[in-house]
Specification:
The chain has 238 residues and is of the alpha/beta class. 37% of the residues lie in helices and 26% in strands. It has ten helices and ten strands. The strands form two sheets. The protein has a six-stranded mixed β-sheet with strand order 6-7-8-3-9-10, with helices on both faces. A four-stranded antiparallel β-sheet has the order 2-1-4-5, covered by helices on one side. The structure holds adenosine-5'-triphosphate. Adenosine-5'-triphosphate (ATP) is lined by residues 16, 19, 21, 39, 41-47, 88, 195. This is ABC transporter ATP-binding protein.
Length: 238
């Protein structure tokens, strides 16, 4: 139906050996929304994104994309279906050029459309300027833009962003969040994982707060930002 969430995660459990990283997490992402999962280091955010992206198999639970059960779909099939991830730490290939890194973004679709690459250069002029340089020579912020552009080449309906602000100077974090808001403004659904909870909630429509593999609070992002318990426990005093 029209108001069915584009992504539904139900009872997700992820573990590594004896470690229970995600202990029965459920959340929904309405089409076109920006939803954020916030929580401390080790809360399970990356594990959730990797499970949704098809990079790791959950122990239990269901992941639905546009109503279809995609729980056991591998990553390449998820990308083809319309779910692309910008991984934690960016995973830029440092010795390949910017252009080569971008070309990899279309790989899962079997081809890189020249028009999609051109669109990314238009959106990120600095990547066009530096297209012939090894990606490892870019600044941290530029590498994050490259990682985002590489994912957008696949024209995803849902973009999964894992800690895009990590390790960046405050001014560059502003740039990254401006890009995220632009992406959302074009109609792409965004799932944003962040340790920078205050910042992520300020940009999001809905938020989920995670603590040791469980959701402790959820709701409209502005309500979470105004919730004293959330502020005290997770956002600190600034
Ligand atoms: P971070 O910000 O550090 O990525 P996170 O909230 O994304 O934190 P996860 O990376 O999902 O959390 O980790 C959740 C838990 O699972 C942590 O206790 C972590 O140590 C553990 N964990 C994650 N990956 C592995 C792994 N490959 N093997 C064993 N334990 C792991």
């Amino acid at each position: 139906s029209a108001d069915e969430p584009i992504l539904q995660v139900e009872g997700l459990q992820v573990g590594y050996g004896r470690v229970d990283a995600v202990r029965g997490v459920s959340f929904e992402v309405p089409a076109g929304a920006l939803v954020t999962l916030v929580g401390a280091n080790g809360a399970g955010k990356t594990s959730i994104l990797n499970a949704v992206a098809g990079l790791l198999r959950p122990r239990r639970g269901t992941i639905r994309f546009r109503g279809t059960d995609v729980t056991r779909w591998p990553a390449h099939k998820m990308v083809r279906a319309g779910v692309a991830q910008v991984p934690e730490g960016r995973e830029i290939l440092a010795t390949l050029t910017v252009a080569e890194n971008l070309a990899l973004g279309g790989w899962h679709r079997g081809r890189t459309r020249a028009r999609n690459v051109a669109a990314m250069y238009e959106r990120f002029p600095v990547l066009h300027e530096r297209r012939a340089l090894p990606a490892g020579t870019l600044s941290g912020g530029e590498q994050q833009m490259l990682a985002i552009a590489r994912a957008l080449i696949a024209e995803p309906a849902v973009l999964l962003l894992d800690e895009p602000s990590m390790g960046l100077a405050p001014k560059i974090v502003d740039d990254v969040f401006a890009v995220i808001e632009q992406i959302r403004a074009t109609g792409t659904t965004v799932v944003l994982v962040e340790q920078n909870a205050r910042r992520a909630l300020a940009a999001a429509d809905y938020g989920y707060v995670l603590e040791t593999g469980e959701i402790t609070h959820s709701g409209p992002a502005d309500q979470l930002l105004a919730d004293e318990r959330v502020i005290e426990a997770y956002l600190g005093i600034e």
